[in-house]
């Protein structure tokens, strides 16, 4: 152990303590660590007495658990040691059992301990601190008009959500939410009337402190929610300002998905022997087990059309689409290819517009929400069935991927997360898979039959939900329409056509839907695979089918049509190729086959692995040649002269005598 005498000695004229700190070696006294691994069904609270006795003398007690955090525990709400009023509010919200993070935090917070909590996205961290704080306020009563609880949130949406949880759990608890983008006057009036809980964003809290509207001298509990996100958004200075004006001896609760250095330093300065509740022992287990993760390979030019099909086929009552830019969000929200009602959410929309969009999405008025990452953190929208990430997060940012996909599969419900990627995004996608510790399922874009079936199913459901009085009101018009179509009251096939037309229109289709190629996603094209029937007896024969050979084979096979077939993209590989063929020509090829009997043709619904590999190699080669082409456009001469181009402005040889080795090589030519 390093003693104070040893640290006062000098090395190279400097104190040992200074040298060690410069080398990044800690000179703090070694602290004893303690960990508790719960056993049995109850993940923590059931063993709290044993935990308290064991951790009474520990500096940094810790609860670590690998129990499933996205399913409720076995302990019912009725058995909790909380007031009947709070139990009734939980039952009114439909909560019968607490999730592990909620159960583990309940007793420590009620006892006034400082807590650092980590849990996966969507496991109920908000109720984990709101429930015990509401219980304490209702038990102790409002002792003054000054707030006793301060909750700091990184975003306006998350602050509004937390305020709603406090109001739902304790209607008698006076709560106010302060955030930027809204008027100061209502917030100032609420603070003057007296308040129990203040929920706010760092910037607006500092503004109220500077204006003298907010007095934090009576704060007994401070909650730092999503502390790592506040650091990422650049709120470290505001957070330090807020923490300096809080009274000493307060209770501090820190909830964070990750624990960066700023969070650690904050806990050392502002917390007293905090209890760490870590339900994310392994970083690769941060994704909820209730979410199905899908990867979908798309062409950049067809991304918008494929999104419309994916939302039609796989989207349920609510779907969220995450896009990288605000411009793309506006374009997609107004796109005619997305057939359901859609709202948009991004940083340029004012607070009133955000609240209207979120309220409409929660109520079911809008089926789809297109948003930038402003909605990825903390917004808890129930029953989101599908999350679509319009592109792979920049540089394979796993935290962004986790928080986007975490908007579905919350509170034990199942959900689906689909990420669009191109061949160029393959490396970023692999980094995400490695970081989350799971392999994403590979899906193909929905085909024409899937889109029509899903659209008709939604329309049928809508028709079945039509109120009977409304149906009766339209019966005379329907009768007149059918009589106009059939000329009589005896309805046969025209009735089916009329119903078919109604289904098509109600599904959002205004013109016939064309089949789309799975290779290039071009309308009215079909992807065909040419494959060798068997191994050839000629060893010298090439097994690579070049694009020129593919074009020649297709043209010879349909020569009797007296027209040149329309071909699209061709991807060749050993023993086969995939080619885009115009739909009418493709059907003839499928019926009659290829003129060369050594090859067979078939329609494919998914790309062969060899074709995907060839596309990736071609993309990498394109990127490499683009990089070489930036230096004067002399790739061949660069290779010839060892990477330097004679007499070029970048070589520095102009006006000088050429080196002997250059003249010699030119003479050899």
Automatic annotation (TrEMBL):
CC annotations in GO: cytosol
Stored PANTHER family: ATP-DEPENDENT RNA HELICASE DBPA, ATP-DEPENDENT RNA HELICASE RHLE-RELATED
Record-annotated Helicase ATP-binding domain positions: 106-277
Name of the protein described by the UniProt record: RNA helicase
Residue stretches of biased makeup (Basic and acidic residues): 655-669
Kinase among keywords: no
Keyword entries, A-Z: ATP-binding, Helicase, Hydrolase, Nucleotide-binding
Disordered, as annotated region: 621-669
Keyword Electron transport among record annotations: no
Pfam families in alphabetical order: DEAD, Helicase_C
Lineage, highest ranks first: Eukaryota, Rhodophyta, Compsopogonophyceae, Compsopogonales, Compsopogonaceae
Domain Helicase C-terminal: 305-452
Similarity remark: Belongs to the DEAD box helicase family.
InterPro entries attached to this UniProt entry: DEAD/DEAH_box_helicase_dom (IPR011545), DEAD/DEAH_RhlB (IPR044742), DEAD_box_RNA_helicase (IPR050079), Helicase_ATP-bd (IPR014001), Helicase_C-like (IPR001650), P-loop_NTPase (IPR027417), RNA-helicase_DEAD-box_CS (IPR000629)
PROSITE patterns reported for this sequence: DEAD_ATP_HELICASE (PS00039), HELICASE_ATP_BIND_1 (PS51192), HELICASE_CTER (PS51194)
GO molecular function: ATP binding; hydrolase activity; nucleic acid binding; RNA helicase activity
């Amino acid at each position: 152990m390093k003693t104070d005498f040893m640290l006062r000695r000098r090395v190279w004229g400097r104190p040992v303590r200074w040298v060690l700190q410069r080398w990044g070696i800690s000179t703090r006294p070694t602290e004893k660590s303690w960990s508790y691994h719960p056993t049995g069904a109850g993940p923590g609270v059931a063993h709290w007495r044993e935990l308290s006795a064991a951790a009474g003398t520990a500096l940094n007690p810790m609860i670590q658990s690998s129990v499933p955090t996205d399913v409720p525990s076995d302990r019912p709400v009725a058995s909790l040691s909380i007031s009947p009023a709070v139990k009734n509010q939980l039952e009114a919200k439909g909560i019968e059992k607490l999730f592990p993070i909620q159960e583990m935090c309940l007793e420590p917070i009620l006892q006034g301990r400082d807590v650092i909590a980590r849990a996966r996205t969507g496991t109920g961290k908000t109720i984990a601190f709101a429930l015990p704080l509401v219980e304490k306020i209702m038990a102790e009563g409002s002792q003054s008009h000054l707030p006793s609880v301060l909750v700091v949130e990184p975003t306006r949406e998350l602050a509004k959500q937390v305020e709603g949880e406090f109001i739902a759990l304790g209607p008698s608890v006076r709560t106010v939410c302060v955030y930027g983008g809204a008027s100061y006057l209502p917030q100032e009036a609420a603070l003057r009337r007296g308040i129990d809980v203040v929920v706010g964003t760092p910037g607006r809290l500092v503004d109220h402190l500077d204006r003298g509207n907010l007095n934090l001298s009576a704060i007994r509990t401070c909650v730092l929610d999503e502390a790592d996100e506040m650091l990422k958004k650049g709120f470290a200075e505001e957070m330090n300002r807020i923490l300096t004006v809080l009274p000493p001896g307060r209770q501090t609760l820190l909830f964070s998905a990750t624990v960066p250095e700023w969070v650690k330093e904050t806990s050392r300065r502002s917390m007293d022997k905090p209890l760490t509740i870590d339900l994310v022992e392994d970083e690769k287990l941060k994704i909820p087990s209730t979410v199905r993760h899908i990867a979908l390979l798309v062409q950049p030019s067809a991304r918008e059309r494929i999104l419309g099909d994916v939302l039609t086929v796989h989207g349920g009552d609510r779907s969220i689409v995450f896009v990288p830019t605000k411009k793309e969000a506006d374009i997609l929200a107004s796109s005619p290819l997305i057939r359901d009602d859609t709202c948009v959410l991004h940083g340029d929309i004012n607070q009133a517009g955000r609240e209207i969009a979120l309220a409409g999405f929660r109520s079911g008025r809008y089926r789809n929400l297109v948003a930038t990452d402003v909605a990825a953190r903390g917004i808890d929208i129930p029953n989101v069935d599908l999350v679509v990430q319009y592109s792979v997060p920049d540089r394979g940012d796993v935290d962004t991927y986790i928080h986007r996909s975490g908007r579905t599969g919350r509170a034990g419900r199942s959900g689906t997360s689909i990420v669009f990627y191109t061949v160029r995004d393959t490396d970023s996608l692999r980094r995400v898979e490695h970081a989350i510790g799971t392999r994403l399922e590979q899906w193909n874009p929905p085909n024409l039959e899937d889109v029509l079936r899903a659209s008709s199913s939604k329309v049928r459901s809508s028709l079945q939900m039509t109120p009977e009085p409304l149906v009766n009101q339209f019966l005379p018009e329907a009768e007149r329409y059918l009589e106009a179509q059939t000329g009589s009251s005896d309805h046969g096939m025209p009735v089916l056509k009329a119903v078919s037309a109604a289904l098509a229109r109600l599904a959002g289709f205004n013109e016939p839907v064309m089949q789309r190629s799975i290779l290039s996603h071009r309308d009215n094209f079909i992807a065909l695979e040419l494959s060798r029937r068997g191994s050839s007896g000629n060893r010298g024969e090439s097994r690579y089918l070049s694009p020129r050979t593919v074009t020649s084979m297709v043209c010879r096979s349909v020569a009797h049509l007296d027209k040149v077939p329309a071909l699209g993209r061709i991807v060749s590989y050993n023993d086969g190729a995939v080619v885009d063929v115009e739909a009418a020509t493709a059907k003839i090829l499928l019926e009659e086959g290829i003129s060369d009997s050594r090859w067979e043709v078939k329609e494919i619904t998914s790309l062969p692995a060899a074709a995907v590999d060839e596309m990736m190699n071609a993309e990498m080669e394109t990127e490499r040649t683009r990089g070489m082409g930036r230096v004067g456009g002399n790739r061949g001469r660069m290779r010839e002269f060892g990477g330097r181009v004679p007499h070029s402005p970048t070589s520095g040889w102009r006006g000088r005598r050429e080196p002997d080795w250059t003249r010699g090589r030119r003479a050899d030519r």
